[in-house]
Amino acid sequence: MEKVTSKDGTEIAYDAYGSGPGLVLVAGGFTERSRYAADAEALASAFTVVNYDRRGRGDSGDTLPYAVEREWEDLDAVRSATGARFASAYSSGSMVLFQAGLPFEKLAVMEPPFRVEGSPEPPERYVERLQEFVAAGNPGGAAELFMVEAVGQPKQVVDQIRETPMWAGMEAIAHTLVYDALQLRDSAVPLELLASIDVPTLALYSNASPAWMQESAKQTAAALPHGKAEGYDGTFHTLPPETIARALTDYFLTT
To answer: Do 162 and 250 fall into the same domain?
Structure first.
């Protein structure tokens, strides 16, 4: 593990794998960098993969008050420290990558969770309720709100997860659900923002994800001046590490 200091003094932790041109992985919501270790290892034969903890997660700091711009600065600090040429973001991490506006040569995103036709209705007062749970010292309430109302998991499944050892780790980063919600703004496809991104970008999706998630990736690619969408066999909101490695290697290095 290595650390870099962001503009506001927050320490951002990262692991580096492999050798070759630098590729930064930007985590999605409710995850730490450990979630992407298998992807990083699969990519390490072609890239120097930089897998970092977004602020408030894992081994990174969390200087308050939070502002969305601080995460853009964190990504810039990681990029500057490692010389990474490429970046790939998962889920809501896509908005960190898109809004940061950094000089990467190519980008990739995995199923940005923009709400398109057919997607679940956004929870009422979602950001405010997340903030209220966090302020009340109830991270489990924030986690359940996200999992049940935002993602659509059955409450009984969440109740079962509450009884497992993983729940404590989920509660430890539940406050960052507020951060992702603020990054996503109203969760609509950000057409004006995407139209301004003059960087070749690949939007990936899993053929096993709900139709609206696949459509969100396709609409993202269509709104980008140099966007391309590709679907592969996978599971819900996830592609196998070897599939991600093959797709990103082909896109970043051979096209």
So the answer is: no
- 107: phi then psi, degrees, rounded to nearest 5: -130, 160
- Tokens for 3, please give them: 């650390």
Strand partners for 109: 89, 203
Domain range for residue 214? Answer: 2-117+187-254
CA pair distance 175, 56, nearest whole angstrom: 8
Q: Are residues 105 and 132 in the same domain?
A: no
Q: Tell whether the model's pLDDT for residue 120 goes beyond 90.
A: no
86 and 34 in a common domain: yes
**Could you tell me how far CA 223 lies from the centroid of its own chain?**
19
Final residue in a domain of this structure, among 181, 203, 228: 181
Could you give the CA distance from residue 135 to residue 137 in angstroms, rounded to a whole number? Answer: 5
Structural domain count, the chain: 2
**Beta strands 22-26 and 86-90: pairing type?**
parallel
Enumerate the β-bridge partners of residue 227: 201
151 and 43 in a single domain? The answer is: no
User: What single letter denotes the amino acid at residue 38?
Assistant: A
Torsion of CA 90, 189, 7, 132, to 10 degrees: -90
Taking the CB of residue 41, how many other CB atoms lie within 10 A of it? 15
Give the DSSP H or E segment for 179.
Answer: helix 176-184
CA dist 101 and 69 (Å) reads: 11
Instruction: State pTM to two decimals.
Output: 0.96
Residue with tokens 């079962």: 160
pLDDT (tens digit per residue) in 176-185: 999 999 999 9
Same domain flag for 192 and 71 = yes
